[in-house]
Amino acid sequence: MREPSICRTLAGKSGFSFGPTLPDRSHQTAHAGQLIYRANEPVDGVDVICEGWAFTFIMLFDGRRQILSFLLPGDVVSTTALVRDRLSVSVQALTDLRYCRFSKLELRSLMETEPKVFDQYASICVEEKEETDQLVTDLGRRTADERIARLVLALMARLGARGMANGESFPFPLRQRHIADATGLTPVHVSRVIGSFRNAGLIEITGRSLTVRNLDELRRVSSTR
Amino acid sequence: MREPSICRTLAGKSGFSFGPTLPDRSHQTAHAGQLIYRANEPVDGVDVICEGWAFTFIMLFDGRRQILSFLLPGDVVSTTALVRDRLSVSVQALTDLRYCRFSKLELRSLMETEPKVFDQYASICVEEKEETDQLVTDLGRRTADERIARLVLALMARLGARGMANGESFPFPLRQRHIADATGLTPVHVSRVIGSFRNAGLIEITGRSLTVRNLDELRRVSSTR
DNA sequence: CGGAAACTTGATCGAATTCAAATAAGGTGG
DNA sequence: CCACCTTATTTGAATTCGATCAAGTTTCCG
After folding, report:
1. Which residues in A90-129 are b (16+ Cβ under 10 Å) and which e?
2. Which structural domain range is residue B148 located in?
3. Is the peptide bond before A171 cis (omega within 30 degrees of 0)?
C-alpha cells in the first residue's frame, strides 16, 4: 500500500493531496492526549494528519491555554514548518492519531517542479490565515453563544466537505474543556451554553458524536451573515 | 527617483525590500480615514505601505468591528493577495498614506527567478500568522490590562525595529476607538485602562505620540514571558 | 464495580459593558 | 486667530455576561 494514500485521496477544500510523486513513507502514531509537538522545539518537516483529530494551542506561563485550531484528517499540522525550523505553537492529539511527515527539503523541491503543489500549499496557508482572522473576530467581538454555535457549524462544514459527516451528525471528540479553550470561555460556562442549546432543541451531544437538530436556528444564533 | 525606494531601504524583520530588480512605479495615496480596500472586492496585486499607518479589520453585519493588524511603513498590506483574487478583510488608512502596488504576476515571476524574494515573502507571511495566533491568545485568554499593555509594547517593538522610535517615544496615531477594536474592548473601558496606566506612571499619550515612562512595569503588567 | 474525570447546577462575584453626562481636543470657515 | 462645532476622552452609576466557588451527578474506563 502506498502512503500517504489517505492524504492523497482526501478531497475537500482543505484536504492536502500530493499526488503520486512522493515516495512511500511510513506513518507515525500517537495516542489521545499525547503532545505531538512542543512550542519552540526544532522541527524538520511538515506533518499531515491521516487519521484522527489533533489541535494546536498556545499555553501561557500561568497555565492559561488558547486552542488555535482543530486538525482533521487531511489537515497540515504546521504549514509554517516549511519555512521556520521551529513552531510557535504546541500540538496535541485529541484522539488516537496517525500522521505522516514530509521533510522540508523534499516538499520544497517538489513545489519547485510541480507548481500545482505550490498553489495547493499556498491555498492551504491562506485558508488557515483567513480562519484565524475569523477566530480573532469571534473572540474579540462575539458573545459566548455565537462563538460556540460558530465552532459547531465550522466543524460540521469542514467534516462535511471531507465526507465525514452523516447528514446532521458527525464525530465530536471534543471535551467541554476543549470548547472552552477554543472559544476563550470557562468549562462551566460552556456547559451552560451547551445545556441551553440542548434545551432549545438546537444540538445534541451523545457519546463522541454531535447531531444538529435545528440547523436554521443554530445558524441564527451564530449571527453569521 | 526610483520607487519603491522607501520600501527598498526599509530595514527590520518585517520590512519588505525587493531589491533593485523591479521597475520604477508611482505610488498611490490616501487620506486618513479613507477605506483603501473593501472586503470581498477583487484585487489584482499586493500593496506595500511606503508612508503612514493603516489597519485591517473585519466588520460584522451589525457594526461590530475587529481590527486584525496595524500596518506600518514597509508592511505588506495583503500578503494573501498573491494567491487570492479577493481579500476577506477590509483595509483603512489610519493616517495619510502613501503605498505602492505590485501586480500578482510580476511578483510571482520575480519569486521564481529570485529565491531570496520568495523566502522573504514567505517569512513575512509566517510572521503575520504568528502574530495573529498571538492575538487570538490575547483576546481569548488575557485581561484588558494585559491586552492593552501588549499592544503598546508590540507597536513599540515594531517601530523600534524600523528606526521609527526615539528611545521610549514613538508616533501613535491611534484613537482609543482603534485600541478598543483591536483589543476586543469598548472605548470607555480603554479610557479607564489608559487612565490607570497614566496614573501609575507607565505611559503618557500626548498629541499623536506615546511615551513609555516605566518599561519594566509595563512589561510586568503585560504578563508576557 | 470502583474510582477518576467530565458534566451539571446553584449561588455569588467581578471585569467589562452600558448608559449618561461633563469636559477636552481638534478642525474649519469666517 | 478666533468662534464654533464636531469628535474624543473622561468620569460616575448601574447593569450584565461570564467567571469563580462549591457541591452534586453522570459518564467513562480500567
Report:
1. bbbbbbebbbbbbebebbbebbeeeeebbebbbbbbbbbb
2. 142-222
3. no
Size (chain A), residues: 225
Q: What is the pLDDT of residue B224?
A: 97
Residue type, B159: L
Strand ranges (DSSP E) for A38-118? 45-51, 54-59, 65-71, 90-93, 97-103
Give the global pTM: 0.93
Q: Tell me what the mean pLDDT of segment A188-204 comes to.
A: 98
Structure confidence by residue, pLDDT tens digits, A21-76: 455 566 899 999 999 999 999 999 999 999 999 999 999 999 999 999 999 999 99
Cα B41 versus chain centre, distance: 21
B26-64 pLDDT per residue, tens: 689 999 999 999 999 999 999 999 999 999 999 999 999
| Cα B3 to Cα A114: distance, rounded to the nearest angstrom | 33
> Would the Cβ of A187 be found within 7 angstroms of any atom in strand C?
yes
Is B89 at the interface with chain A, CB within 8 A?
yes
Question: For residue A2, is it within any domain?
Answer: no
Q: How many structural domains is chain B composed of?
A: 2
Flag if A129 and B125 touch (Cβ within 8 Å).
yes
B145: its cell numbers: 490590562
Q: Is the CB of A184 under 7 A from strand C?
A: no
Q: Do B140 and A84 touch (CB under 8 A)?
A: no
Cell of A213: 437538530
For the record, the C-alpha cell of B223 comes out as 504578563
Contact present, B27 and B50 (Cβ < 8 Å)? yes
Residue ending a domain, among B104, B135, B166, is B135
